[in-house]
Amino acid sequence: MKEKRSLLASIPKGIIFGLIIGILIYFGLGFLGYDEYQAKSKIITTSLDTVDADNVATQNYAATINSNKIKQTTLENLGIDMSLGVFNTKLSIEPIEGSSVVDIVVTDTNKLRAEDMADEYADLAIRVIKNIYQTDAQVMEYAYQNAGKVNNFLGYGLIGGGIAFVVFTLISMIATNSYNNKLIKAYYENQGSLRNRPVENEEIENKNTKVERRVTFKKVEEEEQSSLDEDLEEDFVEEDINEVEDMDATRVINRNEVMENLSQEEDTSYKILGKIPPYSKGDLDV
């Protein structure tokens, strides 16, 4: 079974992929001649005499003028075909700490359009502040003809690289998980097929070959045993024939030997020490 892949291995790959995408975005934007301009309008939420005294409420004023109604009216007044979502990415409302000044900053690829949107938004914001807070708010500085070129390539590169890292890592983890699941499924299917699969022809041939070898070996053993038995039988038969021939051979009997044997037999018999005298009936009765 092949080894499973680790999900954590997707993270280093995602980092490398994100760096590559970020670098491509950074240099690609410059190579393509992508330029952005930043226009800034300044508004003061109180009268000039109370700029430093009323700085506490600057955050509240900034939150008030950060309104979708003002954004939509700005686009309509200028006749710009742009969604609120896109305008939100271009607009930034920045209250100046320690003062009652709020900066209206717009970044766009078109210099004049950036200036127009910043100035129009500043005018609308002043009206809203005056109507709500009844203050002497006014535009302190317009952005017209003051927009400058900015280089946001690094920021775009970081954003693009981060997005690429997240997307690549997620896709890689999903692919790795799918691969591991297929690997496990294939392993169990293979185990099941090994238990239930029919005998292959090659295995049959191998088994037949083994059986033939065993039969051949057994035949050789039987032949060797038979040959050994035949040799032993021939040896025994020859010995028996020799014994029989020895037994059946005609022996020449010597008379003298026979007589000598008889005399020896007589010597071994009991000898009569004396003769019992004749007696009449009743002589020996006691």
Would you write up a description of this structure?
This protein is α+β, with helices and mostly antiparallel strands. The protein has helices at residues 10-31, 58-65, 68-78, 84-90, 111-133, 153-196, 201-248, 255-268; strands spanning 36-44, 91-95, 101-108, 138-141, 148-150. Strands 1, 2, 3, 4 and 5 form a five-stranded antiparallel sheet that branches. The radius of gyration is 63 Å and the shape is rod-shaped. The chain starts with 9 loop residues before the first helix and ends in an 18-residue tail after the last helix. 16% of the residues are buried. The mean pLDDT is 77.
What's this, in brief?
The chain is of the alpha+beta class and 286 residues long. It has eight helices and five strands, in the order αβαααββαββααα. It has helices at residues 10-31, 58-65, 68-78, 84-90, 111-133, 153-196, 201-248, 255-268; strands at 36-44, 91-95, 101-108, 138-141, 148-150.
